[in-house]
C-alpha cells in the first residue's frame, strides 16, 4: 500500500477506536503533571494505528505519545498522537482527533488530522496543498492582528517564565482580541489552515502535537515558526502559526512587545 493510503488508513483506524470508546466507560489514568490524562482509548487507538503502519512498513521508525520511540534504522518516521485532546475526550467533549505526521530524512512530507465526531479529515502533502474532506483549503486573508481571531493552548504544568502563556494571553485579551482555547493543538493548527482562526501560538508542545498540523498550515499558505521566529522544528516546544499577514505582530506580542 502507498505511504499516503497507509497514512489515511492508520488515521481512520485510530479514529474508529476513539468513536467506539466515546460513549462507553473507559479507564482514565494520570501522567506527569496535574490532570495530564491518558485513557484506555489512547492506548487502543495507538495499537490500531501501529497495526496498520507495521502491516505495510514494518521497518519504519515510529514515535508515538504513549509508546515512545520505536527506533529503527529508517529514512521514514511516523509521528503519532493517538488522541490529541485527551482531556476533551475524557470529558465527552467532541473536540479531539488522531494526528499523524510522516517525516522522510527529517522533513515532514505528509500529515493527517481526523476528528471523527464532527467528520473533519485534514490532509497535506508537501508541495501539493492541504485539504479538508478532499477540498483544498487556504488560510484566512485577515491583515491586522487587532482584528484577528486567535487560538492557543496551555501546558499541563504552568510555565513560570517571562512572557509565559498567561501573560501573553492577558495582553491579547486586554486589547480586545478574541482568543479561543479548544484543547487540541492539532485541531487548532488545522483550523488556522482552513481560515477559521487567523493565528495560533503555544509555549510547550511535543512533536506529536504539531507534526501533522504544522505541515497542513504551511501547505494551506500559512507561516509557522518557533517562538523566536525561526523556521519551525517540531522537536522544540514553542510554536506560532498564522495566515502569514499577522505573523510579525503576533511574534512581537508573544515576545513581550505591545500592540
Ligand atoms: C494536548 C493538547 C492541548 C495542548 C497540550 C497538549 P493531549 O495534547 O494538544 O491542546 O494545549 O499542550 O499536550 O495531551 O491531549 O494529547
Ligand atoms: Ca497531544
Ligand atoms: Ca495525546
TrEMBL record:
InterPro entries: IMPase, Inositol_monoP_metal-BS, Inositol_monophosphatase-like, Inositol_monophosphatase_CS, Inositol_monophosphatase_SuhB. Its cofactor is Mg(2+). Keywords: Hydrolase, Magnesium, Metal-binding. PROSITE patterns: IMP_1, IMP_2. Its EC number is 3.1.3.25. The keyword Transmembrane helix does not apply. It catalyses: a myo-inositol phosphate + H2O = myo-inositol + phosphate. The keyword Magnesium applies. It comes from the Bacteria. Belongs to the inositol monophosphatase superfamily. This is Inositol-1-monophosphatase. It comes from Parasediminibacterium paludis. The lineage of its organism: Bacteria, Pseudomonadati, Bacteroidota, Chitinophagia, Chitinophagales.
Amino acid at each position: 500500500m502507498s505511504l499516503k493510503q497507509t497514512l489515511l488508513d492508520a488515521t481512520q483506524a485510530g479514529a474508529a477506536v476513539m468513536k467506539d470508546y466515546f460513549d462507553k466507560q473507559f479507564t482514565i489514568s494520570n501522567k506527569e503533571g496535574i490532570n495530564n490524562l491518558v485513557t484506555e482509548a489512547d492506548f487502543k487507538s495507538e495499537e490500531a494505528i501501529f497495526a496498520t503502519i507495521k502491516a505495510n512498513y514494518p521497518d519504519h521508525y515510529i514515535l508515538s505519545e504513549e509508546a515512545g520511540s520505536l527506533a529503527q534504522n529508517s529514512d521514514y518516521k511516523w509521528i503519532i498522537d493517538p488522541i490529541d485532546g485527551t482531556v476533551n475526550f475524557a470529558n465527552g467533549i467532541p473536540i479531539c482527533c488522531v494526528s499523524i505526521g510522516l517525516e522522510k530524512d527529517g522533513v515532514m512530507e505528509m500529515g493527517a488530522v481526523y476528528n471523527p465526531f464532527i467528520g473533519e479529515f485534514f490532509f497535506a502533502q508537501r508541495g501539493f496543498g492541504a485539504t479538508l474532506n478532499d477540498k483544498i483549503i487556504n488560510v484566512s486573508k485577515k491583515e491586522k492582528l487587532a482584528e484577528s481571531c486567535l487560538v492557543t493552548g496551555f501546558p499541563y504544568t504552568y510555565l513560570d517564565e517571562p512572557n509565559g502563556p498567561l501573560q501573553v494571553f492577558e495582553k491579547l485579551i486586554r486589547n480586545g482580541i478574541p482568543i479561543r482555547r479548544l484543547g487540541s493543538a492539532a485541531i487548532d493548527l488545522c483550523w488556522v489552515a482552513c481560515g477559521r482562526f487567523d493565528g495560533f501560538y503555544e509555549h510547550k508542545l511535543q512533536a506529536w502535537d504539531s507534526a501533522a498540523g504544522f505541515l497542513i498550515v504551511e501547505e494551506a499558505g500559512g507561516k509557522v515558526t518557533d517562538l523566536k521566529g525561526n523556521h519551525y522544528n517540531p522537536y522544540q516546544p514553542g510554536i506560532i502559526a498564522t495566515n502569514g499577514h499577522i505573523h510579525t505582530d503576533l511574534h512581537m506580542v508573544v515576545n513581550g512587545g505591545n500592540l
